[in-house]
Write a structure and sequence with these properties.
mainly alpha, about 70% helix, about 140 residues, about 0% strand
C-alpha cells in the first residue's frame, strides 16, 4: 500500500510509518504534503482550544453573575476547572499567550451567546463588551458579584 493510499485508508498506520521514516532519517520517503497539513492542523487545534476554553470560562462567569440565585459549588468547580485547563494549555503552549488578547473579544461574544442559550435570559442583560479583564478572569479567586 503506497503512502498516499495509506494516509487515506488508515491514518494511524500512516502516522506510524511517517514516524518510522523520520526516526530512520528516510526523508525521501516522507509524505511531506500530508505532514505539512497535519502539523498545521495541530496548531489550529490548539488555537481553537484556547478560544473555546476562554468562552467556556466567561460563559460560566456570566452565569455566575447574572443568575446569582443558581450559584452553587458545582458552578464554582466548573469555573475552577476551566481556569486550570486554560493555565495548562498556556503552560504547554507558551506561544499561545500572545493570542489571548486577540481571542478574548471573540470568545466573549461566544460566551454571551452560550449564556443566553443556557439561561434563557434576555441578551440585553449582558454587556456588549466584557466587563472583566483577562487577568481577572484567569485569577483563581475571582468571582464576579
Amino acid at each position: 500500500m503506497g503512502t498516499l493510499n495509506l494516509y487515506e485508508k488508515d491514518f494511524y498506520a500512516w502516522t506510524q510509518e511517517q514516524a518510522k521514516f523520520i526516526k530512520e532519517r528516510a526523508l525521501d520517503k516522507l509524505d511531506l504534503q500530508h505532514l505539512f497539513e497535519e502539523v498545521e492542523s495541530m496548531g489550529a487545534k490548539e488555537r481553537s482550544e484556547l478560544k473555546n476554553r476562554l468562552a467556556q470560562l466567561m460563559m460560566h462567569l456570566l452565569k455566575w453573575k447574572y443568575q446569582p440565585s443558581r450559584q452553587s459549588r458545582s458552578w464554582q468547580n466548573s469555573i475552577d476547572d476551566q481556569r486550570e485547563e486554560l493555565q495548562d494549555l498556556l503552560s504547554d503552549n507558551p506561544s499561545l499567550k500572545s493570542k489571548v488578547d486577540e481571542y478574548f473579544v471573540k470568545s466573549y461574544k461566544k460566551a454571551v451567546r452560550q449564556a443566553i442559550s443556557e439561561t434563557g435570559l434576555d441578551d440585553s442583560l449582558f454587556p456588549k463588551e466584557c466587563e472583566w479583564s483577562i487577568t481577572e478572569i484567569l485569577t483563581d479567586n475571582f468571582l464576579p458579584s
